[in-house]
Design brief:
InterPro entries: Aldolase/citrate-lyase_domain (IPR005000), MS (IPR053484), MSH_C (IPR059088), Pyrv/PenolPyrv_kinase-like_dom (IPR015813), Pyrv_kinase-like_dom_sf (IPR040442). The protein is an alpha/beta fold. Helices cover 40% and strands 22% of the residues.
Length: 436
């Protein structure tokens, strides 16, 4: 199997769905609104949804709406367009309906196909089912005179069958008997997955399904696809949405479903390195961001207190526990309690410094992070050294590579990124790591 991606994007932050038809005088209004999103409000991938988001009685109208709106606005839309059609692993009638939808959407006479990047196939089962969708797309490409493989395929993991199929994907992808190399996104669909698994929670809320998200991220990595988390349906819980994305990124999943334009903005911005760095105190599994006051990091809370009782003698109280220590011991205790979140500028500075050291023949260098903590008006200088080697450098490259991918593929976001970081940092971030 080839280890190269077939598609230019290495990262997808946002997977935004819009119903293709809704009740009312203008059934295409949701599509028309989504098609005109720009900048941080526009998703990396837009999914006109002719499946769950659209009533079955309106899906024929939805196909026509999709064709008309994409024909009119597709050329200007800054992200990729991947319609979601009907499909089901256990129902050949539904699969045939999905085939007909894709055939109509891609008819060159309708004017939409030149703006269509691929299709999203829901409710897939084992790999034989994925291959059926793949074959339909190959037939469609040949029927309409399109280049074979020009339409990507993304699947939604909504069953145990589909989850297990990801384990076999690497071995199957690229065989002469199929064109699964067209695969682009592996997307979790926790609602139907919960139903398929017959899972229950006391409150009726969806389980977190951390194992599914991990398996999807692992499957995508092994098969050179991109992993996307499913919908976070409490659209008012912005902090919960952000926390979910932090968890996802720790397991290699950058993308997430967005149900509203507000979630699109949050999901577009959250994975990018922060504009400014911040120091955190870690207390009882909580991370508390310290207040930056003139370069000093000030703690204002009651879970931690500090008293200086002599020239080099202190009493540190953490959650009711009291520790008597000298200055050196205090420094070590506070280092254990603090962590630093680097800014884009910090990351680029460190990478440039390591590149210069490597050029000079050094394999590893120490980077120092230092600040002054203020706890109960007591000031303590702390500093920690981190050894940078090639592995550290490559790890730091991941958020920078994300930024570079966004900047390359989303020119409509250039102004927002330069406003966020400054033109100089943007220029340096685009240059770092590009010599290899």
């Amino acid at each position: 199997m080839s280890s190269d991606r077939n598609y230019e994007r290495e990262f997808v932050r946002t997977f935004f769905t819009s119903p293709t038809a809704v009740g009312g005088e203008n059934s295409a209004k949701m599509l028309q609104s989504a098609a005109q999103l720009r900048g941080m409000q526009a998703p990396d991938t837009w999914i006109p949804d002719n499946e769950d988001a659209t009533a079955p009685s309106m899906r024929d109208e939805g196909v026509q709406n999709l064709v008309e709106v994409v024909s009119e606005h597709g050329a200007e839309f800054p992200g990729e367009i991947h319609p979601r059609v009907v499909w089901h692993r256990d129902d050949p009638t539904t699969r045939y309906e999905g085939f007909k939808q894709m055939l109509e959407i891609t008819d060159p006479e309708n004017g939409a196909v030149e703006h269509i990047d691929g299709f999203v196939i829901p409710e897939v089962g084992d790999l034989d089912d994925w291959k059926k969708a793949d074959e339909f797309l190959t037939i469609i490409e040949n029927e309409h005179g399109l280049d074979e493989g020009s339409l990507s395929m993304s699947v939604i993991i909504e069953s145990g069958e589909a989850e297990l199929a990801m384990s076999d994907l690497r071995a199957e992808k690229g065989k002469p008997s199929n064109n699964l190399e067209r695969l682009f996104l592996l997307v979790d669909g926790q609602v139907d997955y919960t139903k398929d698994m017959r899972a229950m929670t006391p409150t009726g809320e969806l389980p977190a399904w951390a194992e599914l998200r991990h398996n999807t991220s692992r499957g995508a990595s092994a098969a050179d696809c991109i992993a996307v988390d499913g919908p976070y349906d409490d659209i008012r819980d912005v902090e919960g949405y952000r926390e979910r994305m932090v968890e996802n990124r720790a397991m290699g999943m950058t993308g997430i479903w967005a149900l509203t334009p507000g979630q699109v903005v949050t999901a577009n911005e959250a994975p990018l390195p922060p504009k400014t760095g911040s120091w955190l105190l870690e207390l009882d599994d909580d991370e508390i961001e310290l207040d930056d006051e003139d370069g000093r990091q000030v703690y204002d809370g009651d879970e931690l207190s500090l008293e200086q009782v002599g020239d080099d003698s202190y009493v540190l109280r953490v959650d009711g526990e009291e520790l008597e220590c000298d200055g050196e011991e205090l420094h070590e205790e506070l280092l254990d309690l603090t962590t630093y979140v680097p800014s884009m500028d910090d990351i680029v500075d460190s990478m440039e410094e390591f590149e210069a050291a490597k050029e000079a023949g050094k394999g590893a260098i120490a980077m120092t992070q230092a600040t002054t903590l203020v706890i109960d008006d007591v000031e303590v200088d702390i500093a920690k050294d981190r050894m940078w080697d090639e592995a550290t450098y490559q790890a730091a490259m991941t958020p920078v590579a994300l930024f570079q991918d966004v900047y390359e593929h989303r020119p409509d976001q250039h102004d927002a990124l330069e406003e966020m970081y400054g033109a100089d940092i943007v220029e340096r971030a685009m240059a770092v790591g590009t010599d290899d």
